[in-house]
Amino acid sequence: MQAQIIDSDGKPLPTSINSDTLVLMPGERYGVMLTPTSQITDSIIVHYKSMNTDSTYGTEYPPVVISGFFAVQEDESKFKISVYPNPNNGTFTITGVQNANVEITNTLGEVVLKREIKTISPAQLDISKYPKGTYFIKVINSKGVFTTRIISI
Question: Domain range holding 24?
Answer without folding.
Answer: 2-66
